[in-house]
Amino acid sequence: MGWGGLADAFDSRKDSWAREYNELKDILSPEEYSSTRATVLNSHFTSPVIIQAMYKGLEWLGFDGGTILEPSMGTMDKANEEVRKYLAERAELVGAVRLPDTAFKNANTSVTSDMIFLKKRDVVLDFERNPEQTPDWVQTKEYENGNIINSYFVDHPEMIVGEMQEESEPYGYRLVCKPVEGDFKEQLNDAIGHLNGTFERDEHANSVEEEIPPEFTEVDYQGHRNFCYCEVDGKIYFRENEMMIPQDFEGKKLERMKGMIEVSNILQELIRLQRDGYSDDEIKAQQVVLNDKYEAFTKKFGLISSDTNMNLFRDDDTSELISSLENLDENGNLVSKADIFTKRTIVPYVAPTHADTVSDALTISIA
Q: How far apart are CA 236 and CA 230, in angstroms?
């Protein structure tokens, strides 16, 4: 969800939206305004089928009211298990459902995602002192053909709404969840019906949230893209919601990471300029910056899409975005650079002013 349908309210050049623009600037702090404005570009429309399944799952588990974290999607296969460990010390995994990569096709994205149900623990556990308490889902396991996925889905294949398949990419293969023949809604509801656990109302629950470990809050997370690496004072961090998790890259790996982070940031800025309708001269200037940084990086470290670089950067949400800068042949050799280096590839967003059907009106209103 986000403000995608009200993008003009954040545009100072839109006279017809001046009142809304000024009101937002008045009632929001600079940080809040920046965060809210970002959803204009980053928001996705979650289909009613998925939203309904989330709440059906909560009802199935006995949840009849109380405080919940806003539903969101994630992936449980990340190589770095620190975030899963942090969550598992504070919450019990009640269950998870893996969705096919077509679940968000209406947002023009093809990505395998997981619907995760967590129940807050009464007491925070300490896996460092008591490693035997670590649940299996914190780790990954070998799946078919040597692929690695979260152990939960290895042990509970009935929670996979689709079929795990290898998909060829320019820099190798990745495991994705592909849809299978049949009605997606029925398949999703069937998986939800396999959730095993209960939510019980705690009338005496402490409303004070557990604090995030100090080492994850030493650096301010604001201003850094979620689920991405960033560089702060020469060090690399991975932002996961309000946590800034320090990374231990050194030497050449550190330099590679810094280079890819910089390429990613420059590319995101170029995309923003195109989406916001900036002039040709401004876009060309940013394309020069992108090209110079890309050439400098590849001269020193090789193609961004190479196994070495992608294995380092794969947990970053923009890894596929920056690898798309290169058009490769079947052998992984560079054929050409992407059009975004030299052309406008994104049409500026135009807010819809009318809907032809009730369905379209609903989509616009909640987009």
A: 6
